[in-house]
Amino acid sequence: MTHAGQRAGGTLPSAGSGAADGTTADEVLVVIAEMLRNVIGDDEILVDSVTMDTSFNDDLELESIEFVALAEQLQQRYGERVDFVTWISELELDELIAMTVGELVSFVARCLEA
Amino acid sequence: MPFAEARGLRFHLQEMGSGTPVVMLHGLFTGSLASWWFTAAPALAGAHRVRLLDLRGHGLSDRPADGYDLATMTDDVLELTADLEPFGVVGHSYGGLIALRLALTKPDRVTRLALIEPPIADRVEVPPRSGGAIPAERALLAETTIIADLEREQPLSDDELAAIAVPMLFAFGSSSWCLPASERVRRVLPSVSCHVLEGGHALHVDARREIAALLVDFLGAPAPALLDGRQVPYG
Predict the structure, then answer these.
(1) CATH number for position B183
(2) What is the DSSP code string of B100-132?
(3) A38 in contact with B at a CB cutoff of 8 Å?
(4) Residue B47 maps to a domain
(5) pLDDT value at A2 more than 70
(6) What is the DSSP letter of A81?
(7) Domain count, chain B
(8) Which of B42, B43, B134 sits opposite A63 (nearest CB)?
(9) Which is the most buried residue in A53, A104, B122, B196, by most CB within 10 A?
(10) Do B34 and A64 touch (CB under 8 A)?
(11) What pTM, to 2 d.p., does this model score?
(12) Does the distance separating the beta carbons of A85 and B42 come in below 8 Å?
């Protein structure tokens, strides 16, 4: 989760009302994309879309502190159902650096299904 | 987002876990509370109320033009922890210097000090920096007095180091520019645990699980599953 330079291209999908309590992977993807819009700020996001293959580091160039902010928003939304901190602590650093949006989405969806 | 107003600034904080309090302080420039959030903090949260702070000018905290000297930043931390009972402190690099100053000036507030790569060799060293590796660092260098503040700082004396009464632990990276400080620790504080682990100045990253294991052991937590069964590398 390193940093900087110019973020690459497009717009994020919009979180519609149907995603408000969504627990499927597609619905969680929309929720996370909306959270990323809040964390990063609209004017910095130039990407066409956030997909399951989007990398936090290489594609979004998310700073580590922005990832913490994203995690906090996830915790606020999903509460104790999603133990984000423990999951992160069990990953190796190279896995963290290479993490895609899809990996986070899958983790959240698994927790919500449990 | 958890923010706190202190000393006319807005500071970003995060907490995890419950139990006896531990405050974790990051290093300067590229550091933020994420430095610990991604490394040792989750392991400590198994038995502690861990408070992570973004120091002034860093992470999501406000970035004032000045006040990056040890006295001012120590006062920031004191105010941001005033609601806690006496706490253990973990500090990386300059965060370790703040921790030492806390223990010297407010010994009643600090129970233990774990210092990872504190730059306490016989003179304060500020590695040359050009440009900045990340936007936050570039902004710090361009918009604040941080370098001048650091260059004015006087190193702790041997007497000051020896006067710190709380239990301490030091860890240094085998390839770090801070490594000479380990010699001073062993000379001035011969009975204090001083570890050299494989890694550089970002030792909490380079030796992430080893540092987590050391901290969990030192701060008095049961070893959680997070530590992956690794042995604490004393020595």
Answers:
(1) 3.40.50.1820
(2) HHHHHH-GGGEEEEEEES---SSS-------S-
(3) no
(4) yes
(5) no
(6) G
(7) 1
(8) B134
(9) A104
(10) yes
(11) 0.88
(12) yes
